[in-house]
């Protein structure tokens, strides 16, 4: 029987919620990158790594390096979680901004939309976004990106859609 392990890095919980969903659907186990041990990686046949996108970057990629020597023997998948609405919109930017992705032999790289809720952010991020939004309110005209950021700060959004994981689940189950 195949043993599937989902290893994730989540700052505010969206990536963890996708990891938990995938583990349930695939009858696997999920662990934070902070808690995973080499033995966990060695015992898994299939590994799914998931990371949050912050300013275009996936910090989990650097943390995965400690397992690189044993990952070549594994079936690997990756998913990113961020604020863009669609995989078609997000993946080209993510791939370009994260050249380390190409150093692993992922069978599939997926993207899922996450959560933007300023109230759940740490103090620094909350402060920065509040200051930016105050500046944007005074600006006229706003670009489409600025309008979207201002709207997101003023109206928290949960864009998670677990149905989007179905193609990844299906591919892994084949």
Oligomer: single chain
Mean pLDDT across every amino acid position: 94
Rg (CA only): 17 Å
In the predicted model, the low-confidence regions spanning at least 5 consecutive residues are none
Question: So what's the overall shape?
Answer: elongated
Number of contiguous helices: 8
Number of strands: 8
Instruction: Return the structural class.
Output: alpha/beta
Helix share, percent: 40-55%
Order of helices and strands: EHEHEEHHEHEEHHEH
Q: Please report which band the strand proportion falls in: under 5%, 5-15%, 15-25%, 25-35%, 35-45% or over 45%.
A: 15-25%
What descriptive keywords fit this protein?
174 residues, alpha/beta, two-stranded antiparallel sheet, 8 helices, 24% strand
How are the secondary structure elements laid out?
Elements: E1 4-9, H1 14-26, E2 29-32, H2 38-43, E3 46-54, E4 57-58, H3 60-64, H4 68-71, E5 75-82, H5 87-97, E6 106-113, E7 115-116, H6 123-138, H7 144-154, E8 157-158, H8 166-173
Parallel strand pairs: 1-2, 1-3, 3-5, 5-6
Antiparallel strand pairs: 3-4, 7-8
Helix pairs in contact: 6-7
Describe the model.
- The chain is an alpha/beta fold and 174 residues long.
- The chain has 8 helices and 8 strands; from the N terminus they run βαβαββααβαββααβα.
- It has helices at 14-26, 38-43, 60-64, 68-71, 87-97, 123-138, 144-154, 166-173, and strands spanning 4-9, 29-32, 46-54, 57-58, 75-82, 106-113, 115-116, 157-158.
- The strands form 2 sheets. Strands 1, 2, 3, 4, 5 and 6 form a 6-stranded mixed beta sheet that branches. A two-stranded antiparallel sheet has the order 7-8.
- Helix 6 (123-138) packs across helix 7 (144-154).
- The chain is elongated, with a radius of gyration of 17 Å.
- The relative contact order is 0.16.
- The model has no long low-confidence stretch (mean pLDDT 94).
């Amino acid at each position: 029987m195949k043993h599937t392990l989902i290893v994730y890095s989540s700052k505010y919980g969206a990536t963890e919620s996708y990891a938990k969903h995938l583990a349930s659907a695939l009858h696997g186990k999920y662990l934070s990158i902070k808690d995973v041990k080499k033995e966990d990686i060695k015992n898994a046949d299939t590994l799914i790594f998931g990371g949050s996108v912050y300013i275009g970057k996936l910090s989990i990629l650097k943390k995965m390096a400690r397992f690189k020597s044993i990952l070549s023997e594994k079936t690997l998948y990756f998913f990113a979680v961020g604020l863009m609405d669609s995989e078609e919109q997000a993946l080209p930017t993510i791939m370009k901004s994260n050249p380390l992705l190409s150093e692993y032999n992922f069978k599939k790289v997926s993207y899922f939309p996450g959560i933007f809720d300023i109230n759940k952010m740490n103090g620094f991020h909350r402060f920065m976004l509040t200051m930016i939004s105050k500046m944007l309110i005074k600006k006229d005209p706003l670009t489409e990106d600025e309008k979207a950021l201002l709207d997101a700060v003023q109206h928290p959004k949960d864009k998670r859609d677990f149905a989007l994981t179905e193609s990844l689940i299906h591919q892994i189950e084949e």
